[in-house]
Amino acid sequence: MGKNKITVAEEHLVTASMDYVISSFFQMPYFHKEKRQKPRIVLSCVEREEHSLGIKMVGRVFEEYKWDVKLLGANLPKEYLLHAINVWNPKMVGLSLSTPALIPELVSTVREIKQKSPNTHILVGGRLSEELQQMKEMEGVQLCNSLHHLKDFIQNQPLENV
User: Fold this and answer.
1) For the segment 12-59, what is each residue's pLDDT rounded down to a tens digit?
2) 130 lies in a domain?
3) Are 77 and 108 in contact (CB under 8 A)?
4) What's the pLDDT score for residue 93?
């Protein structure tokens, strides 16, 4: 971490290129209730988090496993995330962050989701796996620090438990 082998401009170029490739696989989310047989997941970065490439990759993995993915992207204000959860009633919510300064926002968001939707499971991921260990103590919250871990998690989850 922090090896500075590429410039910030080069990182942004690679991110934009990957964003284009990943986005081409997604259907655009639509905002209405619908009965489906597939389990539904709402994915978002926490408020003020601008790095959304990881959550897009997570969405793609869930789509591979036949989940109905609602990808809300970067920097979504908490009130709109809570509204989307209320409208779509997902089995799971995935939250992403990469900045330690946003951990309090993450904790606050998780608590509000659990308060308003106690049966919704929450998946938390990002580059901060060590800093997020406190999240393990919260019931119904799963930490995910890699796409390999995510695939193992999805494969080992009976859908009736999710």
Assistant:
1) 566 666 766 666 655 555 444 555 578 999 999 999 999 888 899 999
2) yes
3) no
4) 97
Q: Distance between CA atoms of 91 and 116, rounded to whole angstroms? A: 14
pLDDT in tens, 61-115: 999 999 999 999 999 999 999 999 999 999 999 999 988 899 999 999 999 999 9
- Contact between residue 109 and residue 78 where contact means Cβ atoms under 8 Å apart: yes
Q: Identify whether 24 is part of a domain.
A: yes
How many domains, the chain? 1
The whole-angstrom separation of Cα 73 and Cα 7 is 24
User: For residue 2, is it within any domain?
Assistant: no
* CATH number of the domain to which 68 belongs: 3.40.50.280
Query: Structural domain of residue 32, as residue ranges?
Result: 8-161
Q: By C-alpha distance, which of 139, 33, 141 is closest to 86?
A: 33
